[in-house]
C-alpha cells in the first residue's frame, strides 16, 4: 500500500510539473503577443514606415503616445476586473482583440484608423499585462511555486528579439503596412496557444472580501509604490532614447549602432531568470535593491564616458535589470497584500505606465529649451535614485520567506 501511495504521489508531481510548464508557457506566449509583438514591434518598424512614406516622424510620435495612453487605460480598467470571479473571459477577449489589431494594421492606410488601432492595442495590452501575471501568479502560489513567476516576463524579451529578427530579416520582402505580415504570422499561433492553455487554468481569484477591500497603501506597501514610480520614469528614458543617443555618440561604430536594440533585448532574456532566482533564494527586497543599483550604474556609465563601450554597458545593464524590478516589485506587493489579487498588479502597472508618459514629455521640454538628449538622462538617474531610496524604506521582516508564499 505504501509503495502504491508513493507511486501515486510521484505521478501527481510529474503531472503538476508538466502542467506548470504549460501554464508558464501560456503566460510567456501572451506577453510575446501583446507586449513584445503588438506593442514594441512598432519601434523597429518606425524607420521603415517613415522610409516607405506611410507616416512621418511626428505622426509616429503621435501613434506611440496614443499607444502609451491606451496601455495606461487598460491597466486602470483591469483594477475593476478583479471583482470578477475569474479574469479568464476578459483575458481571452483582450488577446483576440490585440491580435486582430495587429492583423488590421496590414490593411490600414487611413491615419485616424491607425491611431484607433494603436490605442486599442494599448488598452488590450494593458489588460493582458495585468491579468496574465495576476492569474498565473495566483495559480503558482496555490501550488507553492511562486518563485517561478518571474519566468513569465521572459515573454517581453523574447518578443523584443523576435521584433528585431523578423522586421530586419524581412525588410526587403515587404513594403509599407505589409511589414506587419511577419509579426502577424507569429502572433496568431501564439495567441491561439495562449487561449488554449489559459482556458485550462482553474483557480478562483480573490474577490470582494473584507481582506481584499483593505487599502492598497499602508505602512508596508506605500514605500514600494512610491519607489516604483521612480522605476517607471527611470527606465523609460534609456529604453526609449538609447538608440537615438547611440546615433549621436557612436556613429563610427555601425555594428554596435545597428544592434543596440537587439543587445538590450538579449540582455533582458539572459538576466531575467537570474533576477527571478536571486529573489527566490534570498528575498525579493534584496533583489529589487540590486536591480535599482544596476540600472543606476547603467546610466552613470553612459553619462560619464559617452562612448561606444558605455552605450553598450547601458544597453546590457538596463536591458538586463529593468524587468527584474518589475518581477520583484510585484511579488513584494503580493506578500504585503496577499488578498488584493489583480488590483495591486493593476495599480503597480498603472503607476509604471503613468510615469512612462511623463518621461518623453520631460525630454521634449528639456530639448525645446536648448538642452541635449544626453543631459535628459540625468532625469532618469534621479528617478532611479528616488526608487532605490524608497525601496530601502520597505520592511524586510515580512519578506523572509516570500519565495515560498
Automatic annotation (TrEMBL):
InterPro entries: MFS_4, MFS_trans_sf. It comes from the Bacteria. Keywords: Membrane, Transmembrane, Transmembrane helix. SUPFAM superfamilies: MFS general substrate transporter (SSF103473). The chain crosses the membrane at residues 21-42, 62-82, 89-107, 119-141, 148-167, 179-196, 225-244, 256-274, 286-304, 310-332, 344-367, 373-392. The keyword Transmembrane applies. One of its GO terms (cellular component) is plasma membrane. This is Putative transport protein (MFS superfamily). It comes from Acinetobacter baylyi (strain ATCC 33305 / BD413 / ADP1). The lineage of its organism: Bacteria, Pseudomonadati, Pseudomonadota, Gammaproteobacteria, Moraxellales.
